[in-house]
Q: What sequence folds into this?
């Protein structure tokens, strides 16, 4: 259970634009254990989707994976050739996206699209494929699968289309499922259905899940551990309760206090001053320091490293690692 | 008791669907189907519901931005639908709106000064130096700096753009502000800034606010009263505390339990609704929620329940709560 299924070491993915290089993911290291759900959270533009696309090697120009290693089953995904990668993609690692309607091809039936995945990775007969599709569609809760598989994507509602995406992703029994904001575009009652489905599938399939999102509520439903990203860097990584009950990084703390809660009534929300920095010229030292209320001198000079400060709870902040903790607190 | 500002009485909006060889009307989308609701002076009324339930249409019809199919809307006692064009135009100044998408609701070829100054010019409120002063004032009020004055929308971030939208809405000193999902396209940290700003401005200007959203957590933070809408009809209207602690309609109850709470796993008690929202083209007979309702009884499929007051200020449309 505790062996890592995939481990990302020092991943760097940059986008080379005319204005300069955007360091979207900058030296990120992360592990996903077998059977666990890891939540990756952060605001838009923090690099969470780029990180997940890097795992699948789906980074397009002008983006490029500049450095690092991604170990998966004894292989470095970044150094194998395209042919080998294609065998892994969709079969061993698969992905669901935010907008199911635009991820499905509108001119093919659902049957066609799920069949494509199975055909590509497995050598099975036509009747076998059809049986498999019906099976997987009923597993993800699509009623009347034999009839429904003949329909086109536009005949599905948003929630049902997302179920099709999940069916497609699970059709080859992947070991890792990357879910990039799987419920963001759905209504709350439909979101609840999809979350419930993912919880059940997790039990059935035993796949590890990398859940990407910005909604901390959705994260809490599924994730075992949560990693927080800010401006291309991993700032904190902890188990679920540790993160919510004892958040360490000032960014995580502020983030948790800035969301209106359904269970507590607050008069005023916490504000994080300023905006997310541009990643072409990120601030020196800790990338959060210009917005941080605890910033010290060292924060603008030296980049903090991710270090475990409590069991299973790592944070990249000088407040926890530096000896100069008490001195030079900037007013 | 605060005076009623906007009175919506049995308002309906049906969009025709044309079809056939002669393009005759073959069906209608019942976007808003008999809604009665009022907004009191100075209060924030939250209008919540899932996408497609008609909440934005309701706001648009109520402000006479699109014609109504039936019903009446009274603004401070005057029937909006009976006013002439000129009179209506004057009233527009008092009823402002901010939109969901700050990117598409600002003209990319106008500077901040032009955008915020336009309502002042159109309504002849200020000219020359005075106008400039008003624009600077408004810009500062929404947390932007005077050096932003001559910038174009593309030079601003999403949160800043939404601030411009707010400044434009405030230019005419509105008495009623309709905010249609004002923060849903923004990031969490920026969202908090804007929610606080809206609250501050409301305290300062004293306008009433119709806050439309599908996000029940922000609604709880912002509103005094909440109205829950489902497929064109109101299901429940109650003070904010009531609706979150003591929801009476099965739909409200399910909606509340569906929201994931940060730091907590959902309890076993979560009510999981079956199926999806019905289309407003052919809504189910009787109570529109009955096909998905776990408590539904025979009567529910026959007749739509009226909105009745079951407790002071708490209205529910459900056969089980009569």
A:
């Amino acid at each position: 259970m505790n062996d890592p299924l995939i481990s990302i070491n020092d991943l760097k993915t940059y986008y080379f634009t005319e204005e300069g290089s955007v360091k979207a993911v900058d030296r990120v290291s992360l592990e996903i254990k077998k059977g666990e759900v890891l939540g990756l959270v952060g605001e838009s533009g923090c690099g969470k989707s780029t990180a997940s696309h890097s795992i699948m090697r789906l980074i397009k120009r002008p983006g490029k994976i500049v450095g690092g290693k991604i170990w998966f089953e004894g292989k470095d995904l970044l150094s194998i050739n395209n042919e080998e990668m294609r065998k892994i993609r969709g079969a061993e690692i698969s992905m669901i996206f935010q907008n199911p309607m635009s991820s499905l091809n509108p001119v093919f039936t659902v049957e066609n699209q799920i069949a494509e995945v199975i055909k590509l990775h497995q050598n099975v007969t036509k009747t076998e494929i059809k049986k498999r599709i019906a099976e997987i569609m009923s597993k993800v809760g699509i009623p009347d699968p034999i009839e429904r598989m003949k329909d086109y994507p536009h005949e599905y509602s948003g929630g049902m289309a997302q179920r099709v995406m999940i069916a497609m992703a699970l059709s080859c029994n992947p070991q890792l499922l990357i879910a990039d904001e799987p419920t963001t575009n759905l209504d709350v009652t439909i979101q609840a259905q999809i979350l419930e489905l993912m919880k059940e599938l997790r039990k059935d399939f035993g796949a590890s899940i990398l859940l990407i999102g910005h909604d901390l509520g959705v994260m809490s439903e599924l994730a075992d551990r949560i990693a927080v990203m800010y401006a291309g860097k991993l700032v904190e990584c902890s188990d679920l309760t540790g993160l919510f009950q004892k958040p360490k990084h000032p960014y995580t703390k502020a983030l948790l206090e800035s969301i209106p809660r359904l269970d507590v009534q607050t008069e005023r929300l916490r504000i994080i001053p300023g905006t997310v920095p541009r990643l072409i010229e990120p601030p020196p030292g800790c990338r959060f320091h210009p917005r941080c209320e605890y910033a010290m001198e060292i924060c603008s000079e030296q980049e903090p490293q991710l270090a475990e400060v409590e069991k299973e709870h790592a944070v990249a902040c000088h407040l926890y690692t530096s000896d100069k903790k008490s001195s030079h607190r900037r007013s | 008791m605060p005076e009623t500002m906007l009175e919506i009485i049995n308002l309906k909006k049906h969009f025709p669907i044309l079809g056939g060889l002669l393009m005759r009307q073959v069906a209608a989308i019942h976007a808003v189907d008999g809604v009665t609701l009022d907004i009191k002076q100075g209060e924030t009324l939250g209008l919540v519901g899932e996408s497609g339930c008609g909440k934005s249409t309701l706001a648009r019809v109520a402000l006479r931005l699109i014609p109504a199919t039936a019903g009446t809307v009274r603004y401070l006692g005057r029937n909006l639908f009976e006013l002439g064009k000129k009179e209506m135009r004057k009233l527009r100044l008092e009823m402002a709106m901010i939109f969901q998408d700050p990117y598409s609701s600002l003209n990319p070829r106008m500077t901040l000064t032009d955008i915020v100054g336009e309502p002042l010019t159109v309504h002849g409120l200020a000219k020359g130096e005075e106008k400039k002063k008003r624009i600077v004032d408004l810009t500062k009020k929404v947390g932007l700096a005077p050096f932003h004055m001559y910038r174009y929308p593309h030079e601003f971030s999403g949160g800043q753009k939404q601030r411009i939208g707010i400044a434009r809405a405030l230019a005419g000193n509105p008495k009623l502000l309709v905010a249609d999902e004002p923060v849903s396209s923004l990031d969490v940290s920026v969202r908090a800034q804007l929610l606080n700003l809206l609250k501050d401005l409301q305290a300062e200007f004293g306008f009433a606010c119709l806050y439309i959203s599908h996000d029940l957590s922000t609604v709880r933070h912002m509103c005094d009263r909440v109205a829950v809408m489902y497929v064109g009809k109101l299901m429940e209207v109650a003070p904010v505390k009531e609706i979150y602690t003591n929801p009476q309609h099965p739909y409200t109850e399910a909606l509340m339990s569906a929201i994931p709470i940060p730091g907590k796993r959902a309890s076993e008690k979560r009510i999981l609704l079956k199926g999806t929202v019905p289309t407003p083209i052919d809504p189910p007979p009787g109570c529109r929620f009955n096909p998905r309702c776990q408590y539904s009884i025979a009567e529910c499929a026959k007749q739509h329940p009226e909105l009745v007051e079951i407790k002071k200020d708490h209205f529910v449309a459900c056969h089980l709560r009569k």
Summary: The mean pLDDT of chain B is 91.
